[in-house]
From TrEMBL, chain A:
Domain Activator of Hsp90 ATPase homologue 1/2-like C-terminal: 22-159
Matches recorded under SUPFAM superfamilies: Bet v1-like
Protein family according to the UniProt entry: Belongs to the AHA1 family.
Protein name: Activator of HSP90 ATPase
CDD domains: SRPBCC_CalC_Aha1-like
InterPro entries (UniProt xref): ASHA1/2-like_C, START-like_dom_sf
From TrEMBL, chain B:
Highest taxon above the source species: Bacteria
Record protein name field: Transcriptional regulator
Molecular function via GO: DNA-binding transcription factor activity
NCBIfam families: HTH_metalloreg
Domain HTH arsR-type: 3-97
Positions with biased composition (Basic and acidic residues): 120-131
Gene source species: Streptomyces phaeofaciens
Residue span of region Disordered: 103-131
Length: 161, 131
């Protein structure tokens, strides 16, 4: 009931969805930022997700496994491109092979999330765009390892800082 | 995105083919299937070879087919392949509507959230949400 509008742009292969929640921005943000909450809504009920890594920093990664009704397991990942708690998050969302290697055949999507105070609740705008093959290849060759290194670098900074 | 898995390689080609303004324009022009590659080429400020290459990308993605008509090759948009790309967006729509519904459900289940810090956002009313 809380979806306010949905726009599908066929030319840019982008879905824009606006939803209103009767809860403050911080609580909606927690649904993304807390892995235990995230796994309760990310996967459909028939494919519940278990979140493994959850690093919501630029260059950070979220990895998850969805388990299907037949016990089939599907690995997925986010690569976070930008984050500004508690109002915005942008990431690439893709699938991975069983060993965690990003899939080269599955399309990826770029997801951007904006949360704004709206009356006493929160308006969430989601833009989800299918990426092209070129972007995908680029991501696989230069992206994942760089992203991991960056995340580790940031962790070092935190520990020494 | 679980529903895409059966068909992923071709879906990927489909998106690649669609991710170009000229190619999308070619699809629009070829719905009636009465234009040849050379007639198409005349419509764009690029070489015949460049237009031909775009048509080849579309053809590999199954978005157009070519048929011989005398000495010409006529290009026809394949509505089914275009519909599959639409289907992918529809699937994404369904996926996100489901997620939003589950998010709403979770928010309704836990009205008091212990980790919220109201002090950081003074503009927000201190009392809880209505409804």
């Amino acid at each position: 009931m809380s979806v306010t509008s949905v726009d599908k742009d066929f030319d840019s292969l982008t879905l824009t969805l606006i939803a209103d929640f009767a809860a403050p921005v911080e609580r909606v943000w927690e649904l993304w930022a807390d892995p235990r909450r995230l796994e309760r809504w990310w996967g459909p009920p028939t494919y519940p997700a278990t979140v493994e890594d959850h690093d919501l920093t630029a260059g950070g990664e979220v990895t998850y496994v969805m388990t299907g009704p037949e016990g089939d397991r599907h690995r997925g990942w986010w690569r976070v491109t930008s984050v500004a708690p508690p109002t915005s998050l942008e990431f690439t969302d893709g699938f991975a092979d069983p060993d965690g290697t990003p899939s080269t055949t599955m399309p990826t999507t770029t997801v951007s999330v904006r949360l704004t105070a709206h009356g006493e609740g929160t308006r969430m705008e989601i833009r989800s765009a299918f990426d092209t093959r070129e972007q995908m290849d680029q991501l696989v060759t230069m992206g994942m390892e760089e992203g991991l290194k960056l995340a580790v670098g940031q962790m070092d900074d935190l520990l020494t800082g | 995105m679980v529903s895409h898995q059966g068909d992923s390689g071709s879906l990927d080609r489909l998106f690649h083919a669609l991710a170009d303004t000229t190619r999308r324009d070619i699809l629009r022009r070829c719905v009636h299937g009465d234009l040849s590659v050379s007639q198409l080429a005349a419509a764009y400020p690029m070489s015949f070879a460049a237009v031909q290459k775009h048509v080849t990308v579309l053809e590999r993605a199954g978005l157009v087919s070519k048929r011989r008509h005398g000495r010409e090759q006529l290009v026809l948009t394949e509505p089914e392949a275009v519909a599959r790309a639409r289907q992918a967006l529809d699937d994404l729509d369904t996926l996100w509507r489901g997620r939003v519904a589950r998010m709403s459900g979770l928010l309704a289940q836990e009205p008091q959230h212990p980790r919220t810090n109201p002090g950081t956002h003074e503009h927000r009313p201190k009392e809880g949400p209505e409804r």
